[in-house]
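Notes from the 1:1 (GR / supervisor)

We went over the backlog. Supervisor wanted to see one worked example end to end before approving the batch request, so GR pasted a single chain during the call. The sequence is below; no edits were made to it. Supervisor asked that the structure be written out right there so they could see what the output format looks like.
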Amino acid sequence: MNELTAAIDLGGTTVKCAAVTADGTLLHHSRVPTPKTGRGDVIEAIAASVQTLRAELADSCDADVEALGLGSPGMIGSNGYLYGEAVNVPGWCEFNLAETVSERIGLPVTALNDANAAALAELSVSADSRTLALVTVGTGIGVGLAIDGRPHAGRAGAGGELGHLVIEPGGRPCPCGNAGCTEAYASARAVREIAFEQAATWPDSKSAFAALLRAGGPGTEEHRILESLYRAVREDDPFAFVLHRNFCGVLARVASILASTIAPDRVLFGGGVMGSADLIIPEITRQFGTLVMRHVHDHVQIDIAQLGVDAGLIGAAIAARCAH
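Structure output shown during the call:
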């Protein structure tokens, strides 16, 4: 119990917190809604979560944490500074995240991009890998990089920002302000918008999924749309299959860019949608093979991430232990 590290996984929806042991076990896991009222309130939510965690540890096992690892959306440099704006957290823009939170909670803080934290965690359970990329699909598209055993932030924290790489110039608007970004085509929000738009003119009356969308029925909410889509794919719905193929095609393009730049041992995909990995991974792999040289294809494994929703917390704790 003397090697406990606090970890925060900040998302656009929730602030998750836990104490993490040296072997990756989570203790006193909690989550609270992410405030939508600005930076100060988000920092207070983080501080309150850590304070509650420390009180619970003191009561249950007379232990404390030595540092905090903080995974956050946005371009975070190796110095813990948040460059630019994290579009899914209001007010999360241009400040020293690690220093600010450290001053507030009185602990050393290591801050890194949430996707990089998750990639670092996945690397810890991939004994045969030194370099991997993790693509997370959810409210947005996150790409985490672990190169030669270390998280890769890049200059000004911009390494791995493929969610906002323009893949269709002049295409669909993206929350970042550009048009045609990966996130505008393959995030849960984007898939839902595209599905509604295309369902309106889908000519095949046999598509129950298109009919469900036109009616706005249960399962068409943003947090359920991908689950509903893949239920329809399993039922051989033709409209759902077109959406599936296009969705996987965007992710295959992301994988091809990663494979041809950092040459990872693995490109992993994570997020709630990976409950349908048996459909998604083979289709990404198939399309990936049409986008890269044979040599690249033969030396990159495309697979599902192993640690699920806990990866961000585990990786943030690993980063904090390595730093402190």
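Supervisor's comment: The CA atoms of residues 113 and 316 lie 9 Å apart.
Batch request approved.
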